[in-house]
Amino acid sequence: MDLEQQKKAPVFEALETLKRMRVVPFDVPGHKRGRGNPELTEFLGQRALSVDVNSMKPLDNLCHPVSVIKEAEELAADAFGAEHAFFMVGGTTSAVQAMILAACRKNEKIILPRNVHRSAINALVLGGGVPVYVNPGTNKEYGIPLGMELAEVEKAIEQNPDAKAVLVNNPTYYGICSDLKGIVELAHRHGMLVLADEAHGTHFYFHDELPVSAMEAGADMAAVSMHKTGGSLTQSSLLLLGKNAPEGYVRQIINLTQTTSGSYLLLSSLDISRRNLALRGKQIFDRVLYLARDAREEVNKIGGYCAYGTELVNGRDVFAFDETKLSIYTRGIGLAGIEVYDILRDDYGIQIEFGDLGNILAIISVGDTELAIERLVSSLAEIRRRFSKSAEGMFDHEYITPDVVVRPQKAFYADTRVVALPEAAGLVSAEFVMCYPPGIPILAPGERITQEILSYIAYAKEKGCSLTGTQDIDLNTIHVIAD
Ligand SMILES: Cc1ncc(COP(=O)(O)O)c(C=O)c1O
């Protein structure tokens, strides 16, 4: 990385220049630097509204970058060790979908773990790709899905030599990584691309005590959530390309669904955050690691909880662990993760990332302080004192192996009928069902609805999980494929 070059922030600098030029706007957005919407300007501030502008010559064009966005993307590529970087303004969802749509056309296969984010399976609905699922390992004690074992990926590759790509979570929401380097070597030997969902792995690029990043491992594309742990504004993201990915074609795929009015608030936030990470990433994540390690130790002193970490690493389905993820097992105090999540917010004013049936996740990142961590730890201790109970009868696993009957696109667009959810056992779903967060489907279109899945959904509902994906917002009914 060229540190001298990394001091630049071309999009940010172009916006500063534009402000000084005092151009009279007869283009959109119609608020005209905030003047037309005083309440919004009061709320967000004049400085923010003054750079909420549309693309114009001095600011380049996100869909066809030739000047400052191009330069900013080149700097991002250099900072992340990529061949090319695309600035994305549709969240990491858009980056995941672009990777998959670029790698895999209709009826072409992609090998992936089933514990992927909904955006990956959505891409198969959109493009007609065919999933070949590798079941992730599972940890029996905490009930969580793990990474993919190399041997399982190898089996899937050998059984599906015509697959075009392998997609890997790097890491999972819980912080678990598969053997990405091993998978890259294997997939490349068989002429397949490797795509990494790095929604939770931005920081891997900036600290050598963190798991290997996709670009370092030799992956072909990676979707990186700058907005999650990189410090940029919500919805801003990067799509990174390695040596073998076709830049021009990927840009065309991105432009199939990308807005033609990319937000300069988001673009400048990517530019400034990349500069910050490139220049100060090591110190930032030194501190994040220190805070997370300390928090893990303190949580484990409380008793009942387990803040798991690198001790899970086994060289197979947990190849590495991201220590900045404070994943905590809560079933030991007789509470579902989602219950602890709700109590933390409602009684203690603490918002964590997610709670599922047996775990919670607190993300420790660039904006955290020791004081905030102390508050989290003391609140967890108090919750244990006030609310702990017997864990008997609690649902003890998060992952259910799917029975895929029909491919996602065919199922989504099939003729359907609506049935009451409790009567759906044995039928094939045409819809997604997932707890959000984390947004990993319990059911995807084309999968058989089993009694175990219905019990999981009923339990998750009872515990207060937000269940999403179906047309029926209350999930009392579900669309199934008509016979
Ligand atoms: C693993 C994973 N991939 C992709 C996404 C999509 O990211 P975004 O919300 O930025 O669209 C998420 C979001 O939580 C995620 O957890």
Describe this entry's structure for a reader:
- The protein has 483 residues and is α+β, with helices and mostly antiparallel strands.
- Among the domains are: 284-387, Alpha-Beta Complex (Aspartate Aminotransferase, domain 1), CATH 3.90.1150.10; 408-481, Alpha-Beta Complex (Ornithine Decarboxylase, Chain A, domain 4).
- Helices cover 39% and strands 16% of the residues.
- The protein is built from 17 helices and 20 strands.
- A 7-stranded mixed β-sheet has the order 1-10-9-8-6-2-3, sandwiched between helices.
- Helix 2 (10-21) packs across helix 13 and helix 13 (264-302) crosses helix 15 (370-387).
- The longest helix is centred in the middle third of the chain and has 39 residues, at 264-302.
- The mean pLDDT is 96.
- Pyridoxal-5'-phosphate binds at residues 91-93, 96, 117, 119, 169, 173, 197, 199-200, 225, 237, 438-439.
